[in-house]
Design brief:
Helix content is 32%, strand content 21%. The chain has helices at 53-65, 82-85, 88-97, 176-187, 205-230, 236-243, 252-268, 281-284, and strands spanning 10-12, 17-21, 34-38, 43-47, 71-76, 104-107, 121-122, 128-131, 134-140, 149-153, 158-162, 193-196, 272-274, 288-290. Belongs to the metallo-beta-lactamase superfamily. Glyoxalase II family.
Length: 295
């Protein structure tokens, strides 16, 4: 496992970007959620929130460090996962109790997962958010989650990637086809820097996106090769035992979930067929076969 780089809880990264850690480290969130205060003037845009109560205290202490009358005018949320949206209520409550302007909260709506009491303003693809010294363009990037949005900071030619790209390691995803499409979409911006949802800043942004794309396509080619070599149908577990033979078996269940998402993508593309009917977890763990007419 990669050793995590130590990150300060408050960091002025550039003249217009400040990182405030979510204080929620774990094996899934790495050093914790990266939340960002954006802008060069007194009105800051906050990107994502930390889910822990102590995060809110850290956030407003950070604002005080920046000077008098610094406020959060808007909060923009990358996606519905609690480690990104979980602090919205406490940030609004703190602002209200301390006679501060209430930030407007923006998010790509997801009725299945959004809490009913949240009054989110819908984010549109290519919508522009502006504050002093910063113009931020919303980029719909489904894959990690259906509602995921990344944000392009024009002044720095940088992207806030949310959980599409992490500062260390690789991320998980719900739909592999959409995820790879989103990586290609971000790559077209040719960013120099990436501000990820977790982990340190990435300076070689375009190269990192290419690395993510290549990694996924290499894994896909490995899976297809296993079908060609075996000349028979295979289960996801059998594929994992071959491809991940050098990895600890404790990682195999997570690897199997990833392999299944690859198989689903290849089925949609007409490369594989699932031999068990249905789309429940048990049938997805059943036998899959190569459609040889494709090769």
């Amino acid at each position: 496992m990669e050793v995590l780089q130590e990150l300060p809880t408050f960091t002025q990264l550039t003249e217009r970007v400040i990182r405030v850690l979510g204080l929620n480290p774990s094996k899934f969130t790495l050093q914790g959620t990266n939340t960002y205060l954006i802008g060069t003037g007194p009105r800051k845009i906050l990107l994502d929130t930390g889910e822990k109560p102590e995060y809110t205290q850290l956030l407003f202490e950070s604002l005080k460090k920046l000077g008098e009358n610094i406020i959060i005018s808007d909060i923009i949320i990358s996606h519905w996962h609690n480690d990104h949206v979980g602090g919205v209520d406490s940030v609004l409550q703190y602002a209200s109790e301390n006679n501060m302007p209430l930030p407007v909260v923006h998010k790509r709506l997801d009725p299945k997962h959004d809490k009913s009491h949240h009054n989110f303003q819908q984010v549109a693809d290519n919508q522009i958010f502006k504050t002093d010294g910063a113009s931020i363009i919303a980029i719909f990037t489904p894959g990690h989650s259906e509602d995921h949005v990344a944000f392009y900071l024009e002044e720095e030619k940088a992207i806030f990637t949310g959980d599409t790209v992490l500062g260390q390691g690789t991320t998980v995803f719900e739909d592999l086809g959409e995820y790879i499409d989103s990586l290609h979409k971000l790559k077209r911006f040719t960013p120099g820097r990436l501000y990820p949802g977790h982990g340190p800043v990435i300076e070689n942004g375009t190269e990192k996106l290419e690395e993510y794309i290549t990694h996924r396509l290499e894994r896909e080619n490995q899976i297809i090769k296993e079908f060609k070599t075996s000349k028979s149908s295979l289960t996801p577990r059998q594929i994992v035992e071959k491809i991940y033979a050098k990895y600890p078996e404790s990682l195999w269940p997570a690897a199997e979930r990833g392999v299944i998402l690859h198989l689903i993508k290849l089925e949609k593309e007409g490369v594989l067929e699932k031999l068990s009917p249905g789309s429940d977890p048990e049938s997805l763990r059943g036998k899959w076969a190569l459609i040889h007419s494709k090769f």
